[in-house]
Amino acid sequence: xxxxxxxxxxxxxxxxxxxxxxxxxxxxxxxxxxxxxxxxxxxxxxxxxxxxxxxxxxxxxxxxxxxxxxxxxxxxxxxxxxxxxxxxxxxxxxxxxxxxxxxxxxxxxxxxxxxxxxxxxxxxxxxxxxxxxxxxxxxxxxxxxxxxxxxxxxxxxxxxxxxxxxxxxxxxxxxxxxxxxxxxxxxxxxxxxxxxxxxxxxxxxxxxxxxxxxxxxxxxxxxxxxxxxxxxxxxxxxxxxxxxxxxxxxxxxxxxxxxxxxxxxxxxxxxxxxxxxxxxxxxxxxxxxxxxxxxxxxxxxxxxxxxxxxxxxxxxxxxxxxxxxxxxxxxxxxxxxxxxxxxxxxxxxxxxxxxxxxxxxxxxxxxxxxxxxx
Length: 374
Hints:
By secondary structure, the protein is an alpha/beta fold. It is built from 15 helices and 11 strands. It has a domain of 200 residues: D-Maltodextrin-Binding Protein, domain 2, CATH 3.40.190. It has a 6-stranded mixed β-sheet with strand order 7-6-8-5-9-11, covered by helices on one side. Strands 2-1-3-10-4 form a 5-stranded mixed β-sheet, with helices on both faces. Helix 3 runs antiparallel to helix 12, helix 5 crosses helix 6 and helix 8 packs across helix 13. The radius of gyration is 22 Å and the shape is globular. The N terminus is likely disordered.
């Protein structure tokens, strides 16, 4: 992979140097110079998942901003490696880049889950994405991936996801007692959290959830959002959908690049790949708002899904569960530093956010009375 990327960059540089030559000398190289740099990027999502649409918004922006000099060969989960193996594949140079989430390499180090699916101190995913770029989070991420784990990667975080629903259940659950022994799918530190409040947890990629539900391997599950859930058939195996949860309330997309591959690119291409992540965060948010809301209505109106808010008793239990889990996490020196940084950021930033935000629920109730469980 390194040799190939070197050759590609050398070709681009040589083509640029020839730019000032005479038309006669340029004739053949000018044709060759039109060949774009192809970046092989695999996602952790199935081909039908809306998250592939989100990934395509990134690739489209990169290709347009590069003026066609870069093309991204976007591949679904399993095209080269499994959904949970993209981090290793990028580090080893099997693929150039990946579009995933940090919790998918949680098995390497639990600290991975702190970059999106960690304890909720009162900040949203936007709050925590801001921590990544302005509060020192990216330095912690680099320390974990590059120094502690020795991975040959450079990563960035993108789209700040909406808080993930508690998920899909075959029967109503309103008390902590209702959760005891339920076999439940989630990933990352949320697995430890749910086990702590009495559930039996299986960590599965999105594509394995519905088959596992059909076979009785799991009784309930969460993935991420109404659109993804609907596309893989959640409504066919469960009819009760609980929104609102603290188990994964501040996750973002992760964009991973092979560090050597990235360093070998010209600075402007590096910048386009990096800032394309920020550009896609805006477009992903708009696409998510449109699709998630429309698909939630389809689930209700067309599939007979009962949508409910998670009870306060269960939410309180989740917070108490995080309290216990944090004590264990802080025994690790690195994780304690990350958590201290996050808590300090949330204490300051969310104070402003919460004090400044009007009660949107009150206004919504005024114009659309009785629609939302407040």
